[in-house]
Each structure stands twice: as C-alpha cells, then as structure tokens.
Amino acid sequence: MRTLFLLFLGGVCGVVATVLIATIDPSFDGEEIDGAGGGNVSLTLDERALATMVEQHLPELPAFAERPRVEVRVQRNGIVRVEIGVGEFGVGVRSSIHLNPNIVDGQLQIDVVAATLGQLALPEQVAKLVEEPIQQRLDALAEGLEYRLTSIRTTDRRLTLEILI
Fold this sequence. Notes:
Elements: H1 2-23, E1 41-46, H2 47-57, E2 69-74, E3 80-86, E4 93-104, E5 107-116, H3 123-142, E6 148-155, E7 158-164
Antiparallel strand pairs: 1-7, 2-3, 3-4, 4-5, 6-7
C-alpha cells in the first residue's frame, strides 16, 4: 500500500513539474505589446511638460497673474490633477482642477471632474487651455492627414496618447 501511494505521489509531482516548466516564462515578458490601443503614432507628455504647457497658456485668462506656478500630477486612475498657485508666498491663492482625458468620436476631449478655482476662472476654460495645446501637438504629429485618437494611458506619471493615421 505504501509503495502504491509513493508511486501515485511521484506521478502527481511529475505532472505538476511538467505543467510548471511548460507555463512559466522565466524572462517575465508578457506577450502583450505596448500600445494596445492600435495607434501607429504616440505622444507622451510627462508631468513637467504638461505643467509647462499650462503655465504658458494660463495667463490668457484675465484672473491669473503673469507667472502662475503650476504642478501637474498624472494619476494611474486616468485623472490629471492640476494645482495652480497665484500670487506670492503667504498672500497667494492655491487652486486645483481635476481633469479626465477622454476619446470622443476619435478626438481628444478633456472633462472636468472636480475644481476648486473659486472666482478665478471657470473650470471649462482651464480644461480648454490644457486640451488645445495637446490637440495642436496631435495635429502636428499627423502632419495634416486625417487621424483618429485610439488610446489614452496614464502610467508612470505620464500622459500617453496614441493616434491612428
């Protein structure tokens, strides 16, 4: 009886070992390719690049000073948080807006999720100041050809947009 049990246990261990060897990928590389959105051109902007774009265009709104301080945080859940500081230390105003970049009919649309701008500006105006420069860069990448936005990723503190020309 003991011999039969050991034979059975050895067979089970052999099957398990064979399955493990056949299924484990020692390189830990997945078969998934980057860019699952199906685009053939991508635009990646890190937090600093996004903040610089907002800083350049924010003075177009009358309520913001010449040199607003802007910090951008790209969160993994898809939300882009923009923190804006106006004025000097101790006398200034801090405000923020949370934006959600979306694809609508193959084009970029940035929606406002939450905003604490007070009386400084309408949230939609600030969202448009973020959306327009990104849209201009996508248009430049397409070089005048028709394109469709296929994917938006917010990973590694970066906003990546893929277009299909």
